[in-house]
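Per-record layout

source: Lactiplantibacillus pentosus
name: Twin-arginine translocation pathway signal protein
length: 204
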Amino acid sequence: MKKWLVGIVIAIVALVAGVYLWSAQNGRQQHSASRANTASSKSTTESSKQHKMLVVYYSNSGTTESAAETIQKKTGADIIKLRMSPDYPSDYSKLTVVAKRQIDRNQHPKILNNIDFSKYSTVFLGFPTWYHRPPMFINTFFEKYDLKGKTVVPFTTSMSSSIAVSRPYLKKMTANKQIVLQTGFRANETSTITKYLKQHNFTK
């Protein structure tokens, strides 16, 4: 009789111990899986932030704005229009006078936007070409914002000048700022924009 009771007790103890060990092991596996999923999610989020893109542009006539919106649609980037103080005249003849005076006097107009670039890795910078060079507010842009470690892709709209005429000015503006300045492109036509974005793997 005693042996029978002892056998039952031993069996119960063994069963309880087995259940406990199984539960502990299963809990560790679930915890490990949870940590792995959390790490994977964090890695994905950080990767997403690291590769996020922004289109920043100024447009007076609407041509550069149209190009910027095309880039935004094809890349899925965020988009911001720069605001000046004072703003440039909408009248073309007056605009040319102001733009030339700023160049001659080396005036850097004020940009009103406060932009947080920390979450972006690539910045598309759009501007019209005035007097065969970037407008003077582009000087302000690189002075105002911290773009260290960012890739900057310039694009311009001009019927006569390619991005090549602006490149020497852009290189000078970004010198010693640890910015990765791309060659950029003239964005007058959608086909040109699409080709550049695909060649450089910027399309979504």
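summary: Strands lie at 53-57, 78-81, 84-85, 110-111, 122-128, 151-157, 180-181, 185-186. The first helix runs from residue 2 to 50.
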